[in-house]
Design brief:
Oligomer: single chain
InterPro entries: Alginate_lyase_dom, Chondroitin_lyas
Number of strands: 2
Distance between the termini: 54 Å
Pfam family, one: Alginate_lyase
Keywords: Lyase, Signal
Strand order of the largest sheet: 1-2
Largest sheet: 2 strands, parallel
CATH topology: Glycosyltransferase
Helix content: 40-55%
GO molecular function: lyase activity
Signal peptide: 1-26
Amino acid sequence: MRRSLRIRTGRVVVLSLLTAALLGAAAPPPPPPDDIRSGFRHPGVLLDLDGIDTLRRAVAQGREPQASAYRRMKESRYAAADYRPHPHKVVACPPYKKPPACTAEREDAIAAYTQALLYTVTRDPAHARRAVRIMDAWSQVLTDHTEGNSALQAAWAGSTWARAAELVRHTYEGWPVADAARFGRMLRHAYLGEYAEEVADYNGNWDLTMTDAALAIGVFLDDRRVFEEAVRRFKARVPAYFYLRSDGEVPLAPPGGKADTPEEIREFWFGQRTFVDGLAQESCRNFEHVGYALAATAHAAETAHLQGVDLYGPVRERLRATVEFHARHQLGAPMPTSLCGGRPRLTMGPDLEVVLHHLSGRLGLALPYGQKLAQRMRPAGTDDLFVAWETLTHGRAFGGCTGTDRVGCHDQRCP
């Protein structure tokens, strides 16, 4: 069985009076905390009200790692006051090429999210207006994604659009309802349909990134059916991507895929014959794509957590083992020849902050290699695909929180 060649070529705002006073800004009128029809909490894609309040307080007080991460974001090209979107009617993304429309879509989505984050920190409506201008520009023209990488492209951009739109829609009153609804229709008709593509036989970062995007869009659209389908997809694919010895002598097969015999599964895992805790389906391809899969998995699980659904729990040990295995070797530990021929491609990006936020921050688990690698990469910026500013939004000071310092670990009990 051949691995698919269709792969990426080249990732109520209730603010405390104290926080508002620190930043010299008044809190906006409180919108409803949830949608009574769907039961979703808003904002609730990757960040919730507590997360917003926490990161604002950290930036206002100059605490790390948020202070440095905020400066890096503010100095980026995505934060420019004169940033201009470049929308396209059709985004055509053939494999192994970098068409301008594909790059523009991803970058504009990151710019909208960047401006939305700037607004959540500063309360300066100019940032919200810029985010709205970018999102409106695309929702007025985009109709479709085409060519071989269309599903993955739509997942990268769609997950970022959903984060930006969720923040703006539920923290800023200046986005007209009709325009926000048009943006929602764009997500539903030009993005969600792409995620229905059969990708069980593709490298797993595709499926996991599409799951991340679908789950986030489901929350923004208040569409319980879309959300629940993404949850089902998560539960099916994550155990087939991150290996534990308890799975057996070979990894679990992706549901619905053609790889079901031990030999076919080994081929799907890039010819690997030895399996250890934490190895991932793409480890012997490169660490970069494992990082994408880890980030997408953590994004989906974090958003589900904010919505009261525990996706972390059943895969906690898989994620912990994967983070530690890859971080250890990324930091320089030699790999035995039985794994990836002893020559892994050490290309992991800024992908660990959200998963460490939960495993270390909430659960207090020891991940020394993951923490060391995350610290080495801080302040994490963006991969220009779908990971952006996660030291700012989810970074924590490793070693535990003390006193009233709850930055990055607001669900953890502090001494």
